[in-house]
Amino acid sequence: MKIGCTPSELGLSEEEKIRPAYLDYVRMYGGEPVCLDPVTEPEKIREMVEACDGFLFTGGQDVDPSCYGAEREPECEEASELRDTFEILLARECMRTGKPVFGICRGLQLLNVAFGGTLIQDIPKTVKTETVHSQKNRTAKYAHAAQAVPGTVCAQILGEDAFMVNSFHHQCAKTVAPGFRVSILSPDGIIEGIECVSLPQIKAVQWHPERMDENEPFSKALMEDFLRRCEK
Known about the structure:
Blueprint: E1 2-5, H1 20-28, E2 32-35, H2 42-51, E3 54-57, H3 81-97, E4 101-104, H4 106-114, E5 119-120, H5 123-126, E6 144-148, H6 153-158, E7 163-165, E8 172-173, E9 180-185, E10 191-196, E11 202-205, H7 217-231
Parallel strand pairs: 1-2, 1-3, 3-4, 4-11
Antiparallel strand pairs: 5-8, 6-7, 6-9, 9-10, 10-11
Helix pairs in contact: 2-3, 3-4
């Protein structure tokens, strides 16, 4: 199964444009990752979607607030117009064709914005919480608990008991896009997962499962479910 992976680092060399952890995560469970080049021509987007069985939307830069009709706040970090445009067009074509999509961190935020949702531009500024959502130690495995919402597809995949996740983000979903629902929450109410109601093969999580341990069951369950849907 060919899994198109969006570039996590623009401006780097061809070999470095996607962090290896994403590629390893796909390969670990039997997928064949394909590194995508950002394009904005509709025909090239359509060809890209036809050529792959599913798509992994990776982490990285903040989404530009103009994409969801908001003014930029000082805490919002530099964005890439090319990457935002490419991924929004790609997400919409995946939705149109029903191709499976799995978003990670920025990937959740991008999917939410692509279909009409909004973002909190800086959690520490906006949300009163003692939960650490932006870990300083980039190799740390756990930051806080998360729990799937009963009745969602993610609850079927992960169960309804709380589990621990890592956390490397300062932004998050605010208003969930029409046609999507919250699937996972942290104890302080930050949205940790969303899924498309009509197309369960389109979903995303806010943490980084590709950075978790190889045998961590929730990361394994998420990728295995994604690849099963790609195979269908």
